[in-house]
């Protein structure tokens, strides 16, 4: 079945784009961009199912892999790179694979996306059946991504596909399809625009909701952030203050006692226990903050 990709169609509203003033160009782009979150909203049930699978695999000791080419690959890299500083994760927990390798992060390696065998090879080298894989392709037909998904399925890895068209080859190939149909781009075929914005919103949801479910957020505070520089140390102190209602002096002292770990400092203050007790309970819960609080409550009631 030959389905015409909406991401490759011409946008009737921008047919005279080169004749518009600067203000008219950016106003048109802004109007088109407003369609993106509404398209993402339509895909929320698909996104929810994918996140549930990811949480299950990561809670069982697996890892999350993003695979993409070009802009899609770079968005996976961006999301993976931001998980350790935001959520205090090991850098291997969320990993991105891009067609063309590290060179493709900074420059276009256009032919790399057509290499289906290379996608399979990277999965063979890096992914195990404990993991979960998200293939990202605006078109939904990128050979590199399709190859990666096929190999992942062969070795028993749950697969998720994120595309910006309907009824795509990627959706057919994966266990959990996510289709965010954003329509034609302002510049025909330039999927670094609306399609990329949609993909960024979805990967934001995937990683953030996953980390919240894994207990790396308390209320809406980034309690897993580590004080590895002066800016982050100030952030940790502020988080401790917000979570426990102590003043800055006390928060700073407990931050030092906890070696810059906001989780430890908060729990020391909330339960009046020492750092070794908190660390012991965190290990028992695999670092899940909410579960650790429950364990410390139980200890206090014994």
Task: Give me the secondary-structure topology.
Elements lengths: L21 H12 L1 H8 L1 H16 L4 E5 L1 H18 L6 E5 L4 H4 L9 H11 L5 E5 L6 H12 L4 E5 L5 H5 L2 E4 L14 H20 L16 H15 L3 H10 L4 H10 L3 H10 L4 H13 L1
Parallel strand pairs: 1-2, 1-3, 3-4, 4-5
Helix pairs in contact: 2-9, 3-9, 4-9, 6-7, 10-11, 10-12, 11-12, 13-14
Range of helix content: 40-55%
Largest sheet: 5 strands, parallel
Number of strands: 5
Write down the CATH topology of the largest domain: Rossmann fold
Which spans have pLDDT < 50 for at least 5 consecutive residues?
A: none
> Which CATH C-level class of the largest domain is it?
Alpha Beta
CATH superfamily of the largest domain: Glucose-6-phosphate isomerase like protein, domain 1
Shape: globular
* Succession of helices and strands: HHHEHEHHEHEHEHHHHHH
**Coarse structural class:** alpha/beta
Under the CATH scheme, the architecture of the largest domain is 3-Layer(aba) Sandwich
Cα-atom radius of gyration: 22 Å
Name the beta content range: 5-15%
- What's the total helix number? 14
Mean pLDDT across residues: 95
Overall tally of domains: 2
- Read across the widest sheet, the strand sequence of neighbours is 2-1-3-4-5
Distance N terminus to C terminus? 65 Å
Catalytic activity: N-acetyl-D-muramate 6-phosphate + H2O = N-acetyl-D-glucosamine 6-phosphate + (R)-lactate
Subunit structure: Homodimer.
EC number: 4.2.1.126
Keywords: Carbohydrate metabolism, Lyase
